[in-house]
């Protein structure tokens, strides 16, 4: 009777798991950078409207896609209420 856990089988399974992990980690990183790029583009396109005020919850929603840290989101909300796009860009750079 053959054993399933031979050295060759374990090596093949380990290689498959490693390849899947590398692909998953790279894909996750690219998606995160894509979201940050979208938020940066949103800030550029709507910078004047943000400075006028009234868009702080929309800005908060865009940042919520990038991070779930409540302290960071609180800073985003305060900066958006003040219309400080420079501060919003600094926060985005820090993520």
How would you describe this structure to a colleague?
This protein is mainly alpha-helical and 95 residues long. It contains 5 helices and no strands. α1 packs antiparallel against α5 (85-94), α3 runs antiparallel to α4 and α4 packs antiparallel against α5. The longest helix is centred in the N-terminal third of the chain and has 39 residues, at 7-45. The model has no long low-confidence stretch (mean pLDDT 84).
Major β-sheet annotation: none
Helicity range of the residues? over 70%
Distance between the termini: 55 Å
- How many DSSP helices? 5
- Record field, number of beta strands: 0
Low-confidence stretches: none
* Morphology: rod-shaped
Residue-averaged pLDDT: 84
List keywords for this structure.
rod-shaped, 81% helix, 5 helices, single chain
How would you summarize what this structure contains?
It is built from five helices and no strands. The protein has about 100 residues and is mainly alpha-helical.
How is the secondary structure organized here?
Layout: H1 7-45, H2 47-52, H3 56-64, H4 70-82, H5 85-94
């Amino acid at each position: 009777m053959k054993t399933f856990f031979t050295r060759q089988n374990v090596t093949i399974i380990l290689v498959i798991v490693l390849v899947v992990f590398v692909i998953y980690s790279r894909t996750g990183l690219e998606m995160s950078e894509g979201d940050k790029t979208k938020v940066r583009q949103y800030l550029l396109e709507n910078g004047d409207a943000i400075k006028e005020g009234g868009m702080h919850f929309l800005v908060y929603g865009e940042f919520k896609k990038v991070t779930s840290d409540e302290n960071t989101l609180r800073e985003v909300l305060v900066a958006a209420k003040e219309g400080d796009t420079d501060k919003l860009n600094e926060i985005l750079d820090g993520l």
